[in-house]
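In response to reviewer comment 3 from the previous cycle, which asked for concrete evidence that the modeling workflow produces usable outputs, we include below a single protein chain processed end to end. The sequence was submitted unchanged, and the resulting structure tokens are shown without manual editing.
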Amino acid sequence: MKTSHLIIASAVAAAIGLPGTVLGQAKAETEKCYGVSKAGQNDCQTASSSCAGTSKKDAQADAWIAVPKGTCAKIVGASLTPSK
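The workflow returned the following structure tokens.
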């Protein structure tokens, strides 16, 4: 009988711990990285397009994608601010 209690307790502990792990990953800090998205792959509107996925050319200066914080500075041609 003790074995079945241990199995149930382990399952409950795993179920309780799982949402915290998933939420922790979802809260990862991101930053807007301008000038590096492929045409049609931007994350949000630009000065010349109204919504995500509508940038007209590769590396469009005002189109951005969300990247993990600190990553944009490592990408050649990327910027944390939109170019005009």
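The beta strands are 30-34, 64-68. We consider this sufficient to address the reviewer's concern, and the full set will be provided in the supplementary archive.
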